[in-house]
Design a protein that fits this description.
Length: 335
C-alpha cells in the first residue's frame, strides 16, 4: 500500500507511512469541502465500515511491552472561546470513501513538535475496502458542531500507522496519526485563506501508553446511527461524551487479541476514532489520549450497544507517534 515503510528513527521498523495530499491536491480537497457553503461537510454521512462486532471475549490483562510513558497535553496558544467550550481538540475527520461519497469519523488533535497532528482509527484513514489506497480528500474539522467549522479545516498531508494494519489487517493496530497542513478558512465569498497551526488554535491532547487497565477514561466522539433495536439516540451533529473503566478484551473476528474495552452507550457509526482520555481535567479540557474507538459491541444481547473497543496503546504505538510527531507539514496556500 502506498509508500510503505517510513524513514524513521532507529528501532521503529513497525512504522508505515503514506502521503495523503500534495500542496496542489490539498487546495482541491479544501475547496471540495468548503465550497458551496460547506455542502459536502453537511451532506457527509457517518462511516459505516466495521462499526460493530459480536464476539467480544474478556481476558485477564494486556501485557505491557515496555515501561509506561506519556506526553503532556498543551492548551491553545491564545486564550479565548476555544477554552470555554467542550474539548475542541475533538472534531470530525471527513473523507471520500470507496463508494465515492463523503463520510466522516471522529478525530482528535494531539500535541506534537509542529502542532499539526490528528489521531483517529486507522480504518478511518486507510481504505480497508480497497487494499491499495488511503481514503480520499481527508480533512479534519476541530470543534465541529451543526455543520460549522469554527476553527477552520485542516487537510491531511501524511498518514502514519503500524505496519501490521495495512499488511495483515491486524486490528490490534487500528490507530493512525495524520499530519495536517495549517488551517484553511473560507470567506463569505468563498475565497480560501490560510489559518494557523492546528494545536495552536485548539490545543492538543497528550498521549499515554503501557498504562495499567482499570483506569477511568472519558470518551469523546460524534456517534450516529442506530442501536440494533432500531433506536437512534444520537444525531452525530454535536460532540458527545461518556466515561468508564478500561478492561482487557479479545475480538477474534478482527484478529484482535489485545483490545481494551470501556462501557459506553455510543453507537458505532460516527464514533469510530473517538478519543479515550485518561486523567481528563474538566477545567482545562485536556488529558492523555489512551485509546481510539475501533468498534462497538452489544455484549449483553439486549439490542443496545454498551461497549466501545480500542487497541491497547503500547510501546509500539509510541514509535508510530514519535515518527509522526516530528514530521512538518506547512501551509496549503502560499503565504
Amino acid at each position: 500500500m502506498g509508500s510503505g515503510l517510513a524513514a524513521s528513527p532507529a528501532g521503529a521498523a513497525s512504522v508505515w507511512t503514506d502521503p495523503l495530499a500534495s500542496q496542489a491536491t490539498a487546495v482541491e480537497a479544501a475547496t471540495f469541502w468548503l465550497g458551496d457553503g460547506g455542502a459536502n461537510l453537511k451532506n457527509a454521512t457517518p462511516y459505516n465500515v466495521q462499526t460493530a462486532v459480536d464476539d467480544v471475549s474478556p481476558r485477564g490483562d494486556v501485557p505491557a511491552d515496555s515501561k509506561p510513558g506519556s506526553v503532556a497535553p498543551i492548551p491553545p496558544a491564545t486564550s479565548g472561546e476555544a477554552n470555554a467550550q467542550p474539548p475542541t481538540t475533538s472534531g470530525k475527520v471527513f473523507f471520500v470513501g470507496a463508494d465515492g461519497l463523503p463520510h466522516w469519523c471522529t478525530g482528535t488533535a494531539v500535541q506534537s513538535q509542529y502542532r499539526n497532528l490528528v489521531a483517529t482509527a486507522a480504518h478511518c484513514v486507510y481504505d480497508t475496502q480497497r487494499s491499495d489506497a488511503t481514503l480520499g480528500k481527508w480533512v479534519f474539522v476541530p470543534g465541529y458542531s451543526d455543520g460549522t467549522a469554527p476553527w477552520g479545516l485542516y487537510v491531511g498531508k501524511q498518514a502514519f500507522t503500524h505496519y501490521d494494519f495495512p499488511v495483515y489487517d491486524d486490528y490490534d493496530r487500528d490507530y493512525a496519526f495524520v499530519n495536517v497542513y495549517s488551517g484553511v478558512v473560507s470567506s463569505a465569498s468563498g475565497e480560501l485563506s490560510n489559518g494557523g497551526r492546528l494545536v495552536d488554535s485548539v490545543g492538543g491532547q497528550g498521549l499515554a501508553w503501557n498504562q495499567p487497565l482499570g483506569s477511568s477514561v472519558d470518551v469523546f466522539g460524534y456517534p450516529a446511527g442506530s442501536h440494533p433495536d432500531g433506536k437512534q439516540p444520537y444525531t452525530g451533529e454535536s460532540l458527545e461524551s461518556s466515561s468508564g473503566d478500561t478492561t482487557a478484551a479479545m475480538v477474534p473476528s478482527l484478529k484482535a487479541e489485545e483490545f481494551t474495552a470501556v462501557k459506553s452507550p455510543f453507537t458505532g457509526e460516527g464514533a469510530l476514532g473517538s478519543s479515550w482520555l485518561l486523567r481528563y481535567d474538566k477545567s482545562s479540557r485536556l488529558g492523555l489520549l489512551n485509546g481510539v474507538t475501533a468498534s462497538v459491541s452489544d455484549t449483553d444481547g439486549n439490542l443496545r450497544y454498551d461497549t466501545s473497543l480500542s487497541p491497547y496503546f503500547d510501546g509500539e504505538l509510541s514509535e508510530i507517534y514519535r515518527a509522526a510527531a516530528t514530521t512538518w507539514s506547512g501551509s496549503v496556500l502560499p503565504a
